[in-house]
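Ticket closed. Logging final result for Acetylglutamate kinase.
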Amino acid sequence: MSKIVVKIGGVASDNLTKKFFQQIEQWQACGHEIIIVHGGGYYITEMMERLNIPVMIKDGLRVTTEQALKVTQMVLIGQVQPTITTLFQQHGFGTIGLNASCDNLIQGKLIDQKKLGYVGEITDVHPAAIESVLHKNYIPIIAPLGMTNTGQWLNVNADDTACKIAEAVDADALYLLTDVPGVKQSGEWLEKVSITEVEQLKKEKVITGGMIPKLESAMDALENGVSEVHITNCIEKSGTVIVKEGVFA
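Final structure:
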């Protein structure tokens, strides 16, 4: 059975519209298994500010002190994930929330503790917990947290988490939801871009800012077996499809 991985933002109301759930239902009716990975940066920042914990960003990554890590865990697992699972359940879908502690789901290592604190990169994904949920015809809702082999929790990037999970489950498609409909060139939204063309668009400064790490994660996923990656602002639209080989559509 083919699998579709969808990364959504932490602000559920932005992504989880009626059309979103209709698309999920259609995919399931066609025999696809759905896996959701969620973010939560907006709420983490909001909670840190409320608790007077400094918010620091270096190289596009949130510096994660011990305090910030506790807030990140609390917000992702205690606030964002239950909100999303409840919304899915209200629309008739069975869901189970998963995180790094579920059967060693997401393994990682520190990037640079002195500079970034407990920010990690994913080294391995063990999909047994995901498969167990899918076998029950439930949708796994996964928080972007990792864990070292010594049991240290890590703050990991949600896009990268979705890409690594898509690789681990041999997903046919990965949807990375963002705030724009795709990749734009000369005022036009591109329908399809290959890995080679992504590199060219980066050189031409067509792809800039936060889209760069998103596409780099996408390209890694394609190189590791994922068939196609969609950059879009809603799953009912294909957005820009990133593929391993091909030409501009």
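Residues 3 and 171 are 5 Å apart (CA to CA). No further action required.
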